[in-house]
């Protein structure tokens, strides 16, 4: 039984990413441009982080997506009293500067940028409503109030503002790290303080707000079996990766959501997507702990099968991490996997045997054969040249590969029957198994299936050498390179039974239905991480509801 | 051989020649990436991928019909459709082209799309001055959708048709021991007795043993009324049916100890107070909900207290 813990308020992340409108290359074939908001990489085209973004030299918010990096600031009750204040009175925002009655230099305060709020009541419409968000990023409607850094102040009742008052409600983002007390001070014309109110604010890097675990980031090296905290790209001034403090007297009741990424994402992009998941869960009210699990995938859409092998192999490292997390947060670990990350997730939960390590597992857009969980789902159309060892592992009549797994207390399938990845490249990839040299970009290797036997083929100048691949030793390369999935991918298939069915009820969320409306375009395969919070909050709300944390 | 195909064929031939000597990867990489280029699939792969991906583009046939809230045909509505056409692309395996068409409904509210190939159709927009498309209307379709006799129906509502609905989102913690709970939708309250609109119970084992099978049952009863499940996710539930209501919804299933029982997320029309009020509700019944909450009712509802069956807010 853990003790109740007081949470620290006022902690927020610095707005140092690059939220921009971006063209999706895959959806933009033959000259048709499909734009989507995303967290893009710093580049010559986008050299400026969001906290310094300007339009025509004026500070601006680049797109609605960036608003998830803004928090609210209210100055309540002052505007009604303005007319009652003595002539020459000032209303200012500043960081606390007084120590033992003396003013002092203030290097420890954060810097924040403040804009007028679009919501008349200072509500969260700027995060949930596209119209409000559009107004919010229009600096003609919502004026930039200013930048508040160490030693500076902002005069809110300046004549430059309409009616001499900047407003009661604002939003702000972090510009630089720091911690201090934000003071609202009402003074008379002689600098005598008439009233003062304050709020503690800490701005930090988002990488200091959740744990980043990795089993390796070099796709040329097999994944490690033990995950470690990632020490790359640490925030400026940080030498040690962030890790949550842990006190068994207080923390065993904390919830922990672990997120696993898919394939074809660069290392920076994996972190960016974890950042997005963290932020969007935060805005849905999640106050528990969060971690990202990195496995060594390539940033290359052409090498799916090799990455599938790596994902299978990464299951061991993920399993050990889940064992460790479940020991710290017993029964409170929640797993979220996207796309090919569901291979590692499924494998890790299988390794758990009959011991649930995870309270609830959400398989989002799962790039794994649905037959691994339910051999009764309908076959895809087509002719298959390999046995269906996903459905019958591995002899005729045997149960499916993930039959009876119990690594999670609940399994929930977030699927999209129109998903780009599963309706276009995935079936072609499955149909072209066993892999030939051109598919795995290796001139000396191929795979073959003869009858019910799978082979690895070494291609030599004087002839090919066949090596038998056998179960269970070579299960992972057989699945990745040789065996065609006769079913749809889990992430396209509705009504998957097995562990995804409890009683008569399928545990599933159909993402192509309202309110999610994920469509057939490529941008929707990773839709939960892309676009903006206004259009995606329903997804993350559903994540928390499915976890039964909301 | 035409001029356009020559370089491709030459490259393929070179690659195949060197493949025999075991140098394919080097050559393919050199061909593919002269300077900072995106990696590409080796040309050997192209025909197979091209066939697989572009074979998904088939003749599109889409029959649609637009009606108003009363089921009357709406002529002159403008539909913007986008046909998805995947193409093989050696840099990404596949890219998509979206071919847009603008159509108008005829006097009978009908529209028709063909003479184009593709994998599927997206309704980008459907507009007519003075009307709004139902928000849940289905937007994504396969290559063949609807027919002359049975077109895909799109319902639009006059922008001036709104009703003042009483609604709320509620979470109620309950004991799943079969105790009936009475929910008053107008007040948004729950109690074990008293007046109300719904009577709900869940019954599940008090101390289930992990792995052992247990009965799980629930019932949603409408007091002095009925309910009717809406199973079509593309329905916005703006108009409650006049008939077809049952007095209760019941579900019996068996789950194993350690599992979490649920009815899923279900949507119902409700007829209340012997037909004096209509409404809609989305319901989840869960037991156990989590380690701390033995049973939970999640309700999201909107009631029209006027007696009208129109449920458009």
Task: Kindly describe this structure.
The complex is a heterodimer of chains A (550) and B (313). With 550 residues, chain A is of the alpha/beta class. Chain A has helices spanning 125-128, 130-136, 248-251, 267-283, 304-328, 341-351, 420-423, 425-431, 437-440, 475-482, 533-546; strands at residues 11-13, 19-23, 35-39, 54-55, 58-59, 71-74, 90-95, 98-99, 102-103, 111-116, 144-148, 153-155, 169-176, 178-187, 193-204, 211-214, 228-229, 256-260, 289-294, 333-338, 358-364, 408-415, 445-450, 453-460, 463-469, 501-502, 505-506, 508-510. In chain A, α4 crosses α11 (533-546), α5 (304-328) crosses α6 (341-351) and α5 packs across α10. The two termini of chain A are 21 Å apart. Chain B is 10% helix and 44% strand. In chain B, strands 12, 17, 19, 20, 21 and 22 form a 6-stranded antiparallel sheet that branches. In chain B, strands 2, 5, 8, 10 and 11 form a 5-stranded mixed sheet that branches. The longest helix of chain B is centred in the N-terminal third of the chain and has 14 residues, at 6-19. Mean pLDDT of chain B is 88; it is low at 1-35. At the A-B interface, α8, α9 and β27 of A face α2, α3, β3, β4 and β18 of B.
Main attributes of the structure:
heterodimer, A: 550 residues, alpha/beta, Rossmann fold, eight-stranded mixed sheet, 28 strands, 19% helix, 26% strand, disordered N terminus, B: 313 residues, mainly beta, Immunoglobulin-like, 2 domains, six-stranded antiparallel sheet, five-stranded mixed sheet, 3 helices, 22 strands, flat
